[in-house]
Amino acid sequence: MTEPTATVRDLLREHYSSLTQSERKFATSLLENYPAAGLASITIVASNADVSTPTVARMVQKLGFKGYPQFHQALLKELEATVSGPTQRRDKWTTEAPEGHMLNRFAQAVTDNLGQTFSNIDATQFDAAVRQLANTEGRLYVVGGRITRALADYAFTHFQAIRQRVTHMTSSSATWPHYVLDMVEGDTLLMFDVRRYETNLQRLAELAAERGVKVILITDQWASPIAPVAEYSFNCWVEIPSAWDSNISTMMLLEAMIAATQEESWSETRDRYERLDELFDMTRLFRKFS
């Protein structure tokens, strides 16, 4: 039996329908406090979930693990990956890197990331998130973190052209209470958060969700702690042969969302595009060729 390459969370979701009632009880307990609920001994995790030790043993085998030790080790590796910095990431890929030019290795890693990302997106959830992004009855807020603020800026530029009532939140968390003050039920908060996850973004998501704001999260394959409070959560694969993670699959998903949101409200969006072009002409922002 080969070691599973997907995250334990992915495996739980994939096999959930085939689990028994008691096994689902343990799976639910683990997902509610992931991955911490699975980091203790098999006896303790079974007791905490109020199931038997054999139940846990059977479930981990259904996920593709030889036994609980291998399952436990997989969770530990996931936890280590979420907190690793640039130095640790580079150490990892240099010890595992196959032979070949950097360009070839990089291209293969990016191709794999894109394939993994889009094969794990639920189309129904994607469509629902797009409808939420296109809903102008509420305001759309966009925010990113230390690395992902560039993605938030890109998202704002496009969504602000597509629809009205879009707010780009600054990257300074000290100003966020001013934005939260105006958030109301029915608003949408589009968030970007990747490892090493930012605690201020998590608190912002919690405050927004408490006010009835629909949180749309774009995160990495390990999933930001924001995921449990998000209405819609999308995982993007990001590992590349570098000390830094890649934003290519994240950008690709974002661009798909932008295109789908544009089509969702095309009649209104077309009118905004035309009026925006008129303003560009008036300000002579772009060079025109006769």
TrEMBL record:
<dbReference type="InterPro" id="IPR046348">
    <property type="entry name" value="SIS_dom_sf"/>
</dbReference>
<dbReference type="InterPro" id="IPR009057">
    <property type="entry name" value="Homeodomain-like_sf"/>
</dbReference>
<dbReference type="InterPro" id="IPR000281">
    <property type="entry name" value="HTH_RpiR"/>
</dbReference>
<keyword id="KW-0238">DNA-binding</keyword>
<protein>
    <submittedName>
        <fullName>RpiR family transcriptional regulator</fullName>
    </submittedName>
</protein>
<dbReference type="InterPro" id="IPR035472">
    <property type="entry name" value="RpiR-like_SIS"/>
</dbReference>
<keyword id="KW-0804">Transcription</keyword>
<feature type="domain" description="HTH rpiR-type">
    <location>
        <begin position="6"/>
        <end position="82"/>
    </location>
</feature>
<dbReference type="InterPro" id="IPR047640">
    <property type="entry name" value="RpiR-like"/>
</dbReference>
<keyword id="KW-0805">Transcription regulation</keyword>
<dbReference type="Pfam" id="PF01418">
    <property type="entry name" value="HTH_6"/>
</dbReference>
<dbReference type="Pfam" id="PF01380">
    <property type="entry name" value="SIS"/>
</dbReference>
<dbReference type="InterPro" id="IPR036388">
    <property type="entry name" value="WH-like_DNA-bd_sf"/>
</dbReference>
<dbReference type="InterPro" id="IPR001347">
    <property type="entry name" value="SIS_dom"/>
</dbReference>
